[in-house]
Amino acid sequence: MAELSTQAFNPETLAESLITLRKEGRKAPSASFALPQDLSAGMAAQNAVAQRIGASAKMIKVAMSTDKQPVIAPLFPYVETTSEAKLPYHPGTRFEVEIAVKLGADLPVRSEAYTRAEVLDAVADAYLGSELLVTAVEEGGSVSFPLYLADRIGNGGYALGPKVPKTLIDTVGGLVLKVTHDSSPVYDGPVAHPVGDVLAWLVAYANDTKRPATSLTSGMAVTTGALSGAMPLPGAGRVVVELEGGYQMSVLLSA
């Protein structure tokens, strides 16, 4: 049985523990950490992680917590390329295909809720993207979501690939997606976003009045959730993504 932590929560201490575990390729059970008590404490630890590793607040993922609160995490390492992206592979890495966007206008915090149309208008461009998922927490977010939030919601790297028509934000559902790892099939089936709308979590975060005032600004890259679920990978190698319509990207994962 894992030893229970008796230490008081400290965001800096938690950040150091999470970074060390990832560097060593290890995971620890939630019970072994001094847990952040809420999402705010989890974000404090995440910010400490981001500062230590040099992750930029201009490249983020948006997601939803287990209690339906919009959350974000920095994407790191982050690569933009129209050819082959190169990212590190870590044991247990899972792979997601996503639609990412770049904002062409600020979305400041305001009391009046943003409509989906307003958020869509703020999007300058859409892209095909690939996210690597890695976590130092054995149970992921199932035991303590604030702990998983501190661990960057499992982000282990991101490749922003080719630009795609902005209309795909509304029409990508139902397209066929194929993913191979060193030519072996990993996924071959229809696109299926977890909530059926690529923009849903970004809209929810835009309407979070407690978020930082400058958290959604022009030029930011935001990735919006998996189109295919999280796919386990057998190891390092070349992952090729083909989305119906002729949209492709590849990611070379090196151990």
Note the main attributes of this structure.
6 helices; alpha+beta; 255 residues
Structure, described:
The chain has 255 residues and is an alpha+beta fold. It is 20% helix and 34% strand. It has 6 helices and 13 strands. The chain has helices at 11-23, 39-53, 116-122, 145-150, 168-171, 200-206, and strands at residues 59-64, 70-74, 78-80, 84-88, 94-103, 123-133, 155-164, 176-181, 184-190, 221-226, 231-232, 237-243, 247-254. Strands 1, 2, 3, 5, 6, 7, 10 and 11 form an 8-stranded mixed β-sheet that branches. The protein is globular. The protein starts with 10 loop residues before the first helix and ends with a strand. The mean pLDDT is 96.
Number of helical segments with 4 or more residues: 6
The H/E string reads: HHEEEEEHEHEHEEHEEEE
Low-confidence stretches: none
Number of E-state strands: 13
Radius of gyration: 18 Å
Q: What portion of residues belong to β-strands?
A: 25-35%
The amount of helix comes to: 10-25%
First-residue to last-residue Cα separation: 31 Å
Give a quick summary of the entry.
The protein has 255 residues and is of the alpha+beta class. It is built from 6 helices and 13 strands.
Topology, element by element:
Layout: H1 11-23, H2 39-53, E1 59-64, E2 70-74, E3 78-80, E4 84-88, E5 94-103, H3 116-122, E6 123-133, H4 145-150, E7 155-164, H5 168-171, E8 176-181, E9 184-190, H6 200-206, E10 221-226, E11 231-232, E12 237-243, E13 247-254
Parallel strand pairs: 1-10, 3-7, 4-13
Antiparallel strand pairs: 1-2, 5-6, 5-10, 5-11, 6-7, 8-9, 8-12, 12-13
